[in-house]
Structures are given as structure tokens and as C-alpha cells.
Specification:
With about 180 residues, the protein is mainly alpha-helical. Helix content is about 65%, strand content about 10%. Helix 1 crosses helix 4.
């Protein structure tokens, strides 16, 4: 969440309320955040000195406006270029894609996309191996309904990963053309 917040603050200074609103408006499609989780992440970012907070009076009320510091920008860009973790793959890939416009050079964007595609290919290959291992498995009668829906879940995952691979493949071609 910290890097997503940094990405939002690199767009513009924001209050906690504005950050929450921006999560709800788009990022929540792949990453949800409550006020409490945002406050916790903001405290961590302040502690790391990646952001700062300015208190401003507006209409007689104090509001805290957060903005990213140079070391926060550096940490964000390091995260964008870092290896995508196997856990929470989809959330991380979509978060990086959402903020890919913060990466200045097209060649760097291509490298990031290629790394994410490699991770997605590996995850897809693991699901395909699982599918092969499950083919022909003899399931006791009392577990057949359960197993059927578990296979459907695997099938959904395979379809989602194949779609993502193909979609990112098209994006990669588009980036190479530009």
C-alpha cells in the first residue's frame, strides 16, 4: 500500500480524505484501502521520511496535506523496477501498471512490463502443471461435487492468467512501436 500511496502523492499533494477518495475512484478495482489502513501506511511513510505532512488552515479547520519527498520518489521508482513478488501477483502487477506513467523512459517501461510478464508466465505454467496433475485423479464419490468446483476455480485462474498474458503481450508490442 505504501508504494501505491507514493504513486498517488507523486501526482499531487493530498489529504487523507483525498487519498481515500482516489482509492475508491479507481484503485479499489484491484486494491482496497480503509481510512485506518491509509493512516497506518501514512505514518510508516512519514517515519521513513518518504513523505511529509503540512498542516493548513482552510475554512477555519486544520487539514493535513501529504506530499512525496525526493527519497520517497526514489523508493517508489525502485519498487517499480523491482522484481514482482509471486504472492499478490495480480495486485502488484495492476498497481505497477496503474503508475507506469511515472516511469520516464519507454525502455524502462518495456523492462518492467517484460519482468511482470515473465512472472505471469511462471504463474500460468504452475497452474497448467497443476491442471495436468489433476487430470485423471480418482476422486471418492463424496468429494466429487467439491472437486468439480475446485477444478472450475482452477479453470477460472487459468483463463484469467491467459487473458493477462495476452493483454500484456499486446501492451508490450504497443510500447515497442512507440
Amino acid at each position: 500500500m505504501e508504494h501505491v500511496i507514493l504513486g498517488l502523492l507523486m501526482i499531487q499533494r493530498q489529504t487523507l480524505y483525498e487519498l481515500h477518495r482516489n482509492f475508491k475512484r479507481g484503485i479499489s478495482l484491484f486494491y482496497s484501502a480503509s481510512y485506518g489502513s491509509l493512516q497506518t501506511a501514512l505514518r510508516k511513510l512519514l517515519g521513513k521520511e518518504w513523505i511529509s505532512c503540512e498542516e493548513l488552515a482552510e475554512n477555519g479547520r486544520l487539514k493535513k496535506v501529504y506530499h512525496v519527498l525526493p527519497q520517497g520518489r526514489e523508493a517508489f521508482l525502485h519498487w517499480m523496477h523491482s522484481e514482482t513478488p509471486d504472492q499478490k501477483l495480480e495486485v502488484t502487477v495492476l498497481s505497477k501498471l496503474f503508475f507506469l506513467g511515472h516511469v520516464e523512459h519507454a525502455s524502462d517501461r518495456e523492462v518492467i512490463i517484460a519482468e511482470m510478464m515473465d512472472k505471469m508466465e511462471r504463474a500460468l505454467a504452475a497452474l497448467e502443471r497443476m491442471e495436468q496433475e489433476l487430470e485423471g485423479v480418482e476422486v471418492p464419490q463424496q468429494y466429487r461435487d467439491l472437486f468439480h468446483y475446485q477444478l472450475l476455480t482452477l479453470n477460472y485462474g487459468l483463463g484469467a492468467h491467459r487473458y493477462a498474458r495476452d493483454w500484456f503481450g499486446r501492451l508490450r508490442v504497443e510500447l515497442e512501436r512507440n
